[in-house]
Amino acid sequence: METFTFPQFSTDRSVVHTALYTNISNAAALRKRIIEAAVAEGEAGERERDAVNFAFIDARLITSRLHLQTAIYQAILAESQKSLRTRTVHSEVIWALNPTNNITEALRRYGVSETTTSVIVVSIDGATTDMESKMGATVAGTLTGFSKLEDVTDWAAVAKYHKLNKLSDASEVDKIVVSTVAMKSVMS
């Protein structure tokens, strides 16, 4: 698990916790839980939304730590400027990762799916409590260090979604993908 700090934002948004989980065994159940929490009503719905109040990102499409950090930063910035394009700061992270402006497509591509085997969980709430146990309570998988992200990344899928099929150098693809995320708010 890693913690990023963005001191330029308010205290409830300045601390971000991230965790990479591999060997996910509950992807379908997790996706169903996220969808059901979004529409649940009453106090039980609030509790369930709090339990899954994270960005769940398909790790195979993340090219680097900087790629992830850039999307997180862009989401927090959009929220602080009251210009979210999605309903929450966590879904905004997923939207920022997708090269197009289609929110549904972003959630389908970059969110957790029934076939997801590795997921990055992101918590943007400034909490200093034990995030690892809260995240671990939702994901059935192996907590893995971000140094293993390169083993998870599906470069062919990244190139396909970003229309970079003629590039084979991972470093160059990463630079383009990070730049795309950084410029997305300007282009949209």
TrEMBL record:
Which UniProt keyword terms apply here?
Nucleus, tRNA processing
Q: Where does this one sit in the cell?
A: Nucleus
GO terms in the biological process aspect are: tRNA threonylcarbamoyladenosine modification
Annotated transmembrane regions: none
Q: Output a single Gene Ontology CC term carried by this record.
A: EKC/KEOPS complex
Summarizing the function annotation, the protein's role is:
Component of the EKC/KEOPS complex that is required for the formation of a threonylcarbamoyl group on adenosine at position 37 (t(6)A37) in tRNAs that read codons beginning with adenine. The complex is probably involved in the transfer of the threonylcarbamoyl moiety of threonylcarbamoyl-AMP (TC-AMP) to the N6 group of A37. CGI121 acts as an allosteric effector that regulates the t(6)A activity of the complex. The EKC/KEOPS complex also promotes both telomere uncapping and telomere elongation. The complex is required for efficient recruitment of transcriptional coactivators.
Homology family: Belongs to the CGI121/TPRKB family.
Q: What is this protein called?
A: EKC/KEOPS complex subunit CGI121
Q: In which organism is this protein found? A: Tricholomella constricta
